[in-house]
Design goal:
six-stranded mixed beta sheet; alpha/beta; 28 helices; Rossmann fold; 754 residues
Length: 754
């Protein structure tokens, strides 16, 4: 085989970049060792500087460790204004030579933008775009696109499943990546990002950006690459403020967990929306209608009213013993105190101290009234037990006009502050058990768990909190028997958003609390500089409120597909979602229109289901065909499980060494697991074993966002019947494969699949 001078030249350049990368890693390791060898001594400033160097060095070493990922995957030749052509190599991170000349440009740098954006219609100054195929450190192939010539139509252009031609960047590299076998983790697409994807990735930071994308359009990968781009472009604020990625379930998070580290960003927080609520243990399950009710936006008003209902005036006067006196708080006093505290800003628990201060002042007024009366009735006693004798100077045993004023006044003014020590009075009266009981009656300290536990356990409290928002039947549906303790309450997934709402209104029970101290006490939710929400179409309004309150500045990327809404919530449009997100800026909405992952043969079948499930939506345009139409296999009179075993065995062999998934209704998973095991087919449970096995079995409600080389969909009619959004769940199941699709059924197929 003849030599390829271009390939050899690229290999030489890449070798130089790797040598420089190794040198940078070695220098960083040497700096880290030198600092650690100096020990822990020195001044405070020295220790601070040493810790900064250690943290920076460790982060740099993590960034420089590429594993088996290629450092450089492309090159652009750009013509400058003076007509000269300059070449830039594009890669995962920037590497400069000894003279600071750029050997590899970070893919997120502005100069790399034409690598992803240039087209024949708009070359953006490029003369050449080259995609490099690498195996480790070795360049094994290259693909060139030359601009400015009439014959520049890239190879593979126009292979879409529709009539409209698509102008793809690096079609050969793109198709090679798409046709490779799947693994147990999502791969980054940094080498094959297309123009419409790059425009979203590089969108400005501020505000809410909504990305609508059908199956296979790469919306999840785009959202993750956008997070990496924003961290690169806005490093100073976002590294300090943090970036949060929210996924639909733990399985999905494990599937995407390697993408950002492969792009050099390991400091991003991954969580499900339920994972944002710490401390509450899930132990129950709601009926679908109750789960939907708990997710509605009106529940925010119900929770707010539940908190307000615990701020109660006394029904009868209360007394607090103090020495020989019996100090009184009247019902009117308590009502005035509650009204004053409600006008004060702050959380419920934070205002407890203010309530206590008002109660103490009223008790002090009553104490001084008693002292004044005693002094007036017994002149020989003088000022009495520390009281201000001038307050009772009129004759007779009844209270003077000054005493009556002291009773009615909001505050009392003492003529001689030294004669009555309010601080000492406060200290002594706070030690009285009756004082704590009084405060707990009018303004109790509460945790969110206690509030919700009490609310669910008492129909009168539900009626009070739900007034105007919940019907009697809905109030009854929320009622459940009280547990022995709020800590033992069987919380459901839908309860978590209500607990989060209550925590914000209540605040921590104490001035300082740990994130989780075992007593239901939690600090305020952590906020982030940017949040990415994937599969956002399935979040309830109350869950969206959880997301919104964790946004520091309203910068959020929302990703999903209205057509794939499979939970109790199925919004008609994204306006229903953004209505519950920060509104400092008008939300921007963009759409990914090209499906790179899903073959045209699969999209044609799934599109018929989408037409019934969401008539307003159109399936995405596809870029490739496999030549293999979906299989529809009837079990006939035989057992359904037997047919599934047969088709699964054949499919695994067809796509080996790729991955195959059997997606089934939840009610059939256990039966199919036994049948596959009896047949000697090891079907892993991805929830515990991950997604890397040749064959996986999982319920369809966990399939959102995942992809496999082949998929076997079991009993569509049952799947549709069991899902809250039946046809949309079927649409999700049908669009998971990248190569093969089979449908196994015993019952008649839904009309859309006939």
């Amino acid at each position: 085989m003849g030599r390829n001078p271009e390939l050899e030249a690229e290999q030489a350049h890449v070798d130089r970049a790797y040598r420089r990368l190794d040198q940078l890693r070695s220098d960083t390791q040497a700096l880290l060792r030198s600092v650690l060898d100096q020990g822990r001594g020195g001044t405070h400033q020295y220790r601070e500087e040493r810790d900064v160097i250690v943290r920076t060095s460790l982060a740099r070493l993590e960034q420089l460790d590429l594993g088996d990922q290629a450092l450089c995957f492309g090159r652009i030749d750009a013509r400058g204004e003076d007509g000269t052509v300059e070449a830039f190599h594009i890669g995962r991170l920037g590497v400069s030579g000894e003279e600071l000349e750029p050997l590899v440009v970070d893919w997120r740098a502005p100069v790399a933008e034409p690598f992803y954006r240039a087209t024949g219609r708009d070359p953006m100054g490029l003369v050449l775009r080259r995609h490099l195929a690498a195996q480790g450190r070795r360049i094994v192939g290259l693909e060139d696109e030359r601009f400015g010539r009439a014959d520049n139509a890239p190879a593979g252009e126009g292979e879409a499943g529709g009539d409209e031609e698509l102008e793809l960047g690096g079609p050969g590299a793109l198709l090679a990546a798409l046709e490779g076998a799947r693994s147990g983790h999502m791969r980054d697409i940094v080498a094959t990002i297309q123009r419409e994807q790059d425009e979203i990735i590089r969108s400005p930071l501020p505000g809410v950006l909504v990305v609508q994308g059908g199956p296979g359009t790469g919306k999840t990968a785009v959202a993750l690459h956008r997070a990496a781009y924003l961290l690169y472009t806005h490093r100073f604020p976002l590294e300090r403020q943090g970036v949060l990625v929210i996924g639909p379930n733990p399985l999905f998070l494990r599937y995407i967990e390697h993408v950002l580290p492969s792009l050099g960003e390991s400091g991003v927080t991954l969580s499900t929306v339920n994972g944002l609520v710490h401390g509450a243990q899930l132990g129950g399950e709601d009926a679908p209608d109750v789960a939907r009710l708990k997710g509605e936006a009106r529940m925010a008003r119900v929770i707010a009213r539940a908190v307000r209902s615990r701020q109660r005036a006394l029904r009868h006067d209360a007394h607090v013993p103090f020495g020989s006196a019996n100090l009184r708080i009247s019902t009117d006093d308590s009502a005035q105190i509650i009204a004053a505290a409600r006008r004060r800003p702050g959380t419920h628990n934070a205002r407890r101290r203010f309530v206590e201060q008002l109660v103490v002042r009223r008790l002090a007024d009553d104490y001084l009234r008693i002292v004044a009366l005693h002094t007036a009735g017994n002149p020989s006693t003088g000022n009495g037990a520390g009281g201000n004798g001038s307050a009772g100077s009129s004759a007779g045993n009844g209270p003077s006009s000054e005493v009556e004023a002291a009773e009615d006044a909001y505050e009392v003014t003492y003529e001689d502050e030294s004669a009555f020590d309010l601080a000492e009075f406060t200290r002594r009266v706070r030690r009285q058990p009756a004082m704590g009981e009084l405060l707990d009656r009018i303004w109790p300290r509460l945790s969110a768990e206690e509030l919700l536990h009490d609310l669910y356990g008492a129909l009168p409290l539900l009626a009070l909190a739900g007034k105007g928002d919940l019907t009697p039947a809905q109030q009854s549906s929320l009622h459940r028997p009280r547990s022995d303790s709020a800590l033992d309450a069987p919380w459901t997934a839908a309860d978590l958003a209500l607990l989060d709402e209550a925590r914000v209104l209540l605040g921590p029970r104490r001035k300082r609390s740990s994130p989780s101290n075992g007593n239901g006490e939690h600090d305020e939710p952590r906020t982030y500089g940017h949040i990415v929400v994937d599969e956002a179409q399935d979040l309830s309004p109350m869950q969206l409120r959880m997301v919104a309150r964790r946004s520091l500045s309203g910068s959020i990327t929302v990703v999903g597909d209205i057509g794939q809404a499979t939970g109790p919530w199925a919004p008609a449009g994204w306006d229903e979602v953004t209505a519950h997100l920060p509104s400092q800026r008008a939300p921007r909405q963009v759409e990914l229109t090209v499906s790179y992952r899903t073959p045209a043969e699969v999209v044609e079948v799934a599109g018929r289901v989408l037409a019934l499930a969401a008539p307003a939506l159109a399936p995405p345009t596809t870029v490739r065909r496999t030549g293999v139409p979906p299989r529809f296999v009837s079990a006939g009179e035989g057992p359904l499980a037997g047919a599934v075993v047969r088709v699964a065995r054949e499919t695994v062999a067809e796509v080996s060494p790729g991955t195959t998934a059997v997606l089934a209704p939840g009610s059939l998973v256990a039966e199919l697991a036994l049948a596959l095991d009896a047949a000697g087919l090891e079907a892993s449970d991805p929830r515990t074993e991950g997604l890397g096995a040749p064959l996986s079995l999982l319920p369809v409600d966990l399939a959102n966002g995942l992809e496999f080389d082949a998929v076997v969909v079991v009993e569509p009619e049952v799947l549709v019947a069991e899902s809250p959004q039946g046809l949309r769940a079927l649409y999700v199941a049908l669009t998971r494969p990248t190569r093969r699709l089979a449908v196994v059924h015993r019952r008649p197929l839904p009309a859309a699949l006939h």
